[in-house]
Structure formats: structure tokens, C-alpha cells
């Protein structure tokens, strides 16, 4: 059996070398004309100034302009991992469990020393709304979900999966509880969900699926009503109408999604997965603005046309990005969105501050609101106005989303000087 595996490995390696040289020859043909043009345009006097100038230019061009160079290298490496029956890739950067799910690996698993300071900054943010006359004082710190569950996720013994992200998040929640900040842990929502593990989490990425985002939005709405008395149920409809999955049509795109972990290690090792997205069966009407003070909307229409990029979804098989699907922008700017729900004029006004993992959840939550303003903490274009942005909207509740592996300065770039 062992000899057979060795033979398979060597045969696979031989095939990959043939593929590599064939691809290199193909790439050389494609770049031949461009190289000749560079030689023709090269001025002879430049060789006196920099004798290696032409050589360096051509070397850089060949090295960095081979078509699909990075993908080719990743896929060759990925096939080699499969040939060796590996369950890890890139020196344990990514771990694959028994079910084929990819997880973040990490040898450096120490507590985050910035947890206390970060907790104080979240408290400062909470106090900003409690002391602001424009707001109702309702503030909810939202802990994001993590598909790596200690004790239940089938990981091979000895593999260094990153449990520390959850440990740090637990420490943060304890601190916030001591500071009197209201919190809500989505990990418990997903743990008690009627959906199974495969429906909640991506196999090839770190986040949770659109179906799980819809359930998370419903759980957030229930929590906000329970703690602050802010109802997100539409008049004349049964309680939980927007949260009921039966009021949504599920669309399934087969083998259409390759998550960040799979893109890192290569498709042969990481694989693809189906992408399932729920769309409302009921009538909707939205208006979306991309700047705080703009009176000109960037889009108007129903949920599927305004908050979902259907063209991108249908045209980008295997290269989907959930953020681009839900909060798309031609210039790649997702820092600010004010979403007005014309179909729910009596709903609450919600301010949602969070990272990109929370985008799908915020989009589904907007169905339950009169207005939802989303501010990304990862790429605040209006950095000088960030404090103003979180203070201006007349919100019924402010939600601050915290990702398990994102407790750092880049996640929360403000209130650094006023935490104490």
C-alpha cells in the first residue's frame, strides 16, 4: 500500500512538471511580442547608466506578467499536497478537517494583550450613544460566529487550529459585561440553530453563509426587541414575519464559490462549494445612498436589484465574493451605506457598525428597518468624520459587530485617545 502511494506521488509530480513546462511555454509565446517591443524601445544610452537595466526589465516582466501565474503555482502546490494525502497546507496555515472544511491554523496561540484596552474603547463607544440626545441610548455589542467549535469540529490530533480567536472573544465579552455593555453572542444562535453545520458555515471560507446571515438578522431583531423594546415586526403581519425563512426563496449556485482559504491553498486542495442565497418572496422597495450627506441615491428598486448584485452573482462562477454580492460598488468602496426601506416606513432606524463579515447580516436586517446605516470599521473613507458619522443618525439602536479574529486596531480605528 505504501509503495503504491509513493508511485502515485511520483507519477503526479511528473505530470505536474509536464504541465508546468507546457504552461511556461504557452506563457512565453503570449509574452514574446511584448518582450520584443520592450527591447526595441530600449534606449542604447541607458545601458551606460544602468548596464543591467534591460535585463532587469525583462526579468521582472517575465516573472510578474505570466498569465495566471499565481493561480498556476498555487494549483501545482495544491496537487502536491493531495498526492501526499496532506490535511494541512502552507506550513499549517490552513487545516482541513475530516469533513473537508478548511480552518485557519496558527502555531502562535497567545491571548490578545489588547483585549482590555479594546474593551474600554467599546465602552467609550457605548457611552457615546447613551449620552447623546439624538439616540435612544440602545447599544448592542454583537459577537460574530466562528465555524471552528472546540470539542465538536473534527480536527486531527496535534494540528494547530486557531482556537485562540474564540478565547479572545470570550475575554472581550466578559470585560464588556463587567463594564455594563449589552452584548449578544451569535455563536449561541448558530449552535442552537435548526440548520445543520453545512448550511451555516462556508466550507472554504471563515464566515457564515447567507442563510445563516438571515437567521442571525432575525435573532438580532428579537434581541433588540427583548432588551430595548424596539420592534422590527411590520404592522398587520405576524410576529417574526421578516425572520421566517419560509418567506424567502432559496437560489442555489452549484460549485460557484471558492472561499478565501481555498484561494490561498489552491482549488485542487481547497475545492469549491455551492452558494445558496435567500431572496424575499414579498414585495420590497429600497433607496440606497453612499455618502452621509447625499440627497442623490446611487440605486433604487427592490431587494434583488438594489442590495444584491445579480449580474455579478451570475457572471462570476467560482470567483464569488459575498461582500461584493451584498454591498456592491463599482469602485470597490463599502465604507458607508444608508439603506432606506420604503416598504417598511414604521420600522426602526438602525445604525450598524461592523466589519465585512457582517455585511450580509446587516443587509437582511435592513428588511426589518425603516432605515439602516452601515459603517465599515475596516476601511473608513470618511476617517476624519467617523466620530460624527456614528453620532449623527437619529437611531433607535446602534449595533457594533465584533469578529472573532478581528480584535485589533484596524477593526476599530477610533476612540483610541478617550478609552480611559
Query: What integer is the average pLDDT?
Result: 78
Proportion in β-strands: 15-25%
Instruction: Report the C-alpha radius of gyration, rounded.
Output: 25 Å
Spans of at least 5 consecutive residues with low confidence: none
Biggest pleated sheet:
8 strands, mixed
Detailed description of the structure:
The protein has 420 residues and is of the alpha/beta class. It has two domains: 2-104, no CATH class; 115-402, no CATH class. Helix content is 40%, strand content 15%. The protein has 16 helices and 13 strands. Helix 1 (2-41) packs across helix 3 (53-64), helix 5 (115-130) packs across helix 6 and helix 9 (210-228) crosses helix 15 (359-365). The longest helix has 40 residues, at 2-41. The radius of gyration is 25 Å and the shape is globular. The mean pLDDT is 78.
Amino acid at each position: 500500500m505504501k509503495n503504491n502511494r509513493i508511485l502515485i506521488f511520483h507519477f503526479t509530480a511528473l505530470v505536474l512538471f509536464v504541465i508546468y513546462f507546457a504552461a511556461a511555454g504557452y506563457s512565453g509565446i503570449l509574452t514574446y511580442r511584448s518582450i520584443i517591443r520592450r527591447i526595441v524601445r530600449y534606449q542604447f544610452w541607458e545601458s551606460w547608466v544602468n548596464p543591467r537595466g534591460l535585463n532587469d526589465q525583462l526579468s521582472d516582466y517575465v516573472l510578474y506578467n505570466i498569465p495566471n501565474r499565481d493561480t498556476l503555482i498555487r494549483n501545482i502546490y495544491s496537487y502536491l499536497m493531495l498526492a501526499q494525502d496532506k490535511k494541512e497546507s502552507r506550513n499549517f496555515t490552513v487545516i482541513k478537517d475530516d469533513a473537508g472544511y478548511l480552518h485557519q491554523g496558527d502555531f502562535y496561540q497567545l491571548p490578545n494583550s489588547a483585549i482590555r484596552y479594546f474593551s474600554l474603547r467599546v465602552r467609550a463607544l457605548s457611552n457615546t450613544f447613551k449620552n447623546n440626545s439624538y439616540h435612544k441610548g440602545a447599544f448592542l455589542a454583537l459577537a460574530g460566529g466562528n465555524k471552528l467549535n472546540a470539542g465538536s469540529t473534527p480536527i486531527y490530533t496535534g494540528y494547530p487550529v486557531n482556537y485562540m480567536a474564540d478565547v479572545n472573544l470570550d475575554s472581550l465579552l466578559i470585560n464588556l459585561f463587567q463594564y455594563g455593555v449589552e452584548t449578544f453572542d451569535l455563536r449561541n444562535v448558530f449552535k442552537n440553530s435548526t440548520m445543520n453545520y453545512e448550511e451555516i458555515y462556508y466550507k472554504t471560507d471563515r464566515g457564515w453563509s447567507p442563510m445563516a446571515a438571515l437567521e442571525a438578522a432575525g435573532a438580532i431583531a428579537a434581541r433588540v426587541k427583548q432588551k430595548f423594546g424596539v420592534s422590527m415586526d411590520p404592522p398587520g403581519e405576524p410576529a417574526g414575519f421578516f425572520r421566517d425563512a419560509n418567506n424567502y426563496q432559496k437560489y442555489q449556485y452549484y460549485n460557484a464559490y471558492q472561499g478565501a482559504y481555498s484561494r490561498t491553498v489552491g482549488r485542487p486542495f481547497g475545492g469549491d462549494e455551492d452558494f445558496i442565497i435567500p431572496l424575499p418572496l414579498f414585495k420590497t422597495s429600497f433607496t440606497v445612498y453612499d455618502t452621509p450627506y447625499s440627497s442623490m441615491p446611487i440605486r433604487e428598486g427592490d431587494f434583488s436589484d438594489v442590495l444584491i448584485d445579480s449580474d455579478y452573482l451570475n457572471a462570476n462562477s467560482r470567483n464569488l465574493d459575498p461582500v461584493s454580492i451584498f454591498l456592491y460598488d463599482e469602485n470597490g468602496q463599502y465604507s458607508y451605506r444608508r439603506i432606506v426601506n420604503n416598504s417598511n416606513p414604521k420600522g426602526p432606524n438602525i445604525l450598524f457598525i461592523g466589519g465585512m463579515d457582517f455585511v450580509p447580516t446587516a443587509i437582511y436586517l435592513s428588511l426589518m428597518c425603516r432605515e439602516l446605516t452601515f459603517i465599515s470599521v475596516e476601511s473608513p473613507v470618511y476617517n476624519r468624520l467617523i466620530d460624527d458619522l456614528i453620532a449623527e443618525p437619529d437611531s433607535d439602536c446602534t449595533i457594533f459587530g465584533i469578529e472573532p479574529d478581528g480584535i485589533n486596531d484596524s477593526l476599530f480605528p477610533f476612540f483610541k485617545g478617550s478609552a480611559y
